[in-house]
Design brief:
The chain is an alpha/beta fold and about 350 residues long. About 35% of the residues lie in helices and about 10% in strands. The strands form two sheets. Strands 1, 2, 3, 4, 5, 6, 7, 10 and 11 form a nine-stranded mixed β-sheet that branches. Helix 7 links the parallel strand 5 and strand 6. The longest helix is centred in the first third of the chain and has 26 residues.
Length: about 350
C-alpha cells in the first residue's frame, strides 16, 4: 500500500512538472524566424497583398511579361509570382514547366537542353495552352491550342494596358521572358520566385538566381523584394545554407517538411521550437484533409514574424474568408477578381 502511494505521488509530481513546463512553453516569447523587417507581411487591419500567380494565368499566358504588365495595370503594388528554369546557355527564364511543350508549339523541349538565344532568334511563342497527359508539361499531345483567358477569348499582347513608355514586344506572340527582365522592369514590386528544376540543374539555377540578386542588390533592392521558393529538398537545403553563411537576409519559404512541422507545432503550442528561418509560409487552403486557414496558424506565424500567403485562390468566397482571417497575401490566377474584392473592402 505504501509503495502504491509512493508511485501515485511520483506520477502526480511528474504530471505537475509536465504541466508546468508545457505552460511555460505556451507563454514563452516566440523566436523571430525571420530576423529582419519582413516586407511580405501586412500591418494589422491592412488588406492582404494581391499576388498574381504567374502574372494571372487565367487572364493572360502565365510567366510572360505581358501577364505581369496586365497585373500591374490592375494594381501597381501587385506582388508578382513566377517560376524559373535555367537554359542550356545559363539564362534564367520564366516558365512553370521544365519543358516548353505545354506553353509553346515545341515538342520534346526540355528547357535545360535549349539555348535562350535560340528561343529569342526563333521568336518562339509562349502563348499556347496545350493539353497534357502527365505532370509538369511532360507527355504532351501534339495538339497546339492558342491561349484563351477565363472569359473564353483569345488574347494578344495588344490587349495589355502597358505603363506609359512601354510598347508591346510583338503584335501577336508572347515571347520568352527572363527573371532579369522581371527584376528590372518592375523595380518596386515584390517578386516570388519558385525554382522548378531539381538536382544539379536546380542548384545551378539557384546559383544563377542568387547572382542576379547580387548584381541588382543595390540598384533594385533585390534582397528586400524577392522571396525564393522550391518544393525540392536539395534546393531548399542550399537556401538554408546560404542564409546561414553568406546571405543572412535571404527570404524564402519552407518546403513540405518545414510546413508540416510548423503546422504540428502551432497545433500543439510548441512552435517555440520551430527552427526554420523562413520569411513566409506559402500554403494551400487545405492539405491531407486538414484546414490550413485557421486563425491560430496565422496568428502563430505572425508571432514568429512569418507572413502567411495562400494559393491558388480563384473564387470570391475564399478570398473574402482569407481577408477576414487576416492573411498577408492571396495568390490568384484572377487578379482582376481579387482586386475587385479588395476594392470593395477598402471603401
Amino acid at each position: 500500500m505504501i509503495e502504491k502511494k509512493k508511485r501515485t505521488s511520483v506520477l502526480q509530481r511528474l504530471f505537475l512538472i509536465t504541466l508546468f513546463l508545457y505552460g511555460t512553453i505556451l507563454i514563452f516569447p516566440r523566436p523571430q524566424s525571420f530576423a529582419f523587417n519582413n516586407p511580405l507581411r501586412v500591418e494589422h487591419n491592412e488588406l492582404p497583398l494581391l499576388i498574381a500567380h504567374g502574372g494571372g494565368n487565367l487572364e493572360f499566358p502565365d510567366n510572360t511579361l505581358e501577364a505581369y504588365y496586365h497585373a500591374y495595370s490592375i494594381n501597381p503594388n501587385v506582388m508578382l509570382e513566377t517560376d524559373v528554369n535555367l537554359t542550356a546557355d545559363n539564362v534564367i527564364i520564366l516558365s512553370h514547366d521544365r519543358t516548353l511543350d505545354r506553353k509553346t508549339n515545341l515538342t520534346n523541349a526540355t528547357i535545360a537542353d535549349i539555348n535562350y538565344t535560340d528561343l529569342v532568334n526563333s521568336e518562339v511563342d509562349f502563348g499556347f495552352s496545350n493539353p497534357t497527359e502527365g505532370p509538369n508539361g511532360f507527355n504532351v499531345t501534339n495538339t497546339f491550342n492558342r491561349y484563351q483567358n477565363y472569359l473564353g477569348e483569345e488574347v494578344t499582347p495588344l490587349d495589355v494596358e502597358y505603363p506609359q513608355g512601354i510598347s508591346p514586344r510583338h503584335p501577336s506572340k508572347f515571347l520568352v521572358s527572363t527573371l532579369e527582365e522581371l527584376i528590372t522592369l518592375f523595380p518596386n514590386n515584390l517578386i516570388n520566385v519558385e525554382i522548378k528544376q531539381t538536382d544539379e540543374t536546380g542548384l545551378r539555377a539557384l546559383e544563377k538566381v542568387i547572382e542576379l540578386m547580387d548584381t541588382y542588390a543595390e540598384s533594385h533592392q533585390t534582397y528586400q523584394r524577392i522571396v525564393l521558393a522550391s518544393f525540392h529538398e536539395n534546393v531548399y537545403e542550399e537556401l538554408q545554407r546560404l542564409q546561414g553563411t553568406t546571405h543572412p537576409n535571404l527570404m524564402f519559404s519552407p518546403e513540405f517538411n518545414g510546413v508540416l512541422s510548423f503546422y504540428i507545432m502551432q497545433l500543439t503550442g510548441t512552435s517555440v521550437f520551430y527552427q526554420h528561418r523562413v520569411a513566409v509560409l506559402q500554403l494551400p487552403t487545405e492539405q491531407l484533409g486538414l484546414s490550413l486557414t485557421t486563425r491560430s496558424l496565422i496568428q502563430t506565424a505572425h508571432q514568429h514574424n512569418i507572413a502567411v500567403h495562400y494559393w491558388t485562390i480563384n473564387d470570391e468566397e475564399t478570398m473574402i474568408d482569407l481577408i477576414e482571417k487576416g492573411v498577408d497575401g492571396i495568390m490568384t490566377d484572377r487578379p482582376s477578381l481579387l482586386q475587385d474584392v479588395l476594392t470593395r473592402y477598402a471603401t
